Amino acid sequence: SYVLTQPPSVSVAPGQTARITCGGDNIGSKSVHWYQQRPGQAPVVVVNNDDDRPSGIPERFSGSNSGNTATLTISRVEAGDEADYSCQVWDTTQNHPVFGGGTKLTVL
Amino acid sequence: QVQLQESGPGLVKASQTLSLTCTVSGDSITRGGIYWSWIRHHPGKGLDWIGFISHRGTTSYNPSLESLVNISVDTSKSQFSLKLRSVTAADTAVYYCARLVVVAGAHNWFDSWGQGILVTVSS
Fold it and tell me: Does A52 touch chain B (CB under 8 A)?
């Protein structure tokens, strides 16, 4: 089955840029969706279809996807961005969704 | 705006069956292009897709759980349900129901989630 690999943790100072990666075999050929999960809350999609932002998501959140790596970029990081971030794609071979292992973003 | 709400016991004994229900409001559960899904989150781990069902009853399950899981839908009540048999401590997790938007070209993603319900399996 298709596997997505994320770093367990990323740390960044307020105001800096955080980049969270999601690795997968030829992931650039798939649509990647990113979810933010704050402690005790349900996941919320922050980027879908590689680089689209749903209504209400700040412009500070952006995505890219090429080759074997997709990246979620959070500019001008704020304390409120501290959360777990997970990537998700659709495994077309088995016809079901696949999630990455999640990355904990810590704002220093 | 669609809302999803999980309900069910928060404590299940090992070897018994975990049963949860998700009530959908603000959207028709019979709308096409949607799969109604269950996902769980183990503490400190990633999201784990369990399975989904269409309003017509078509299902798909995570291969690792397929022999133990059943998802059903009751369109008259705008609800869908999860049953997970023979639970162990490893099934302790927060369980979410979610709406999966199905888009041609496999651009499928979860656009709405319930608040989640913690289910603890006791020995």
Answer: no
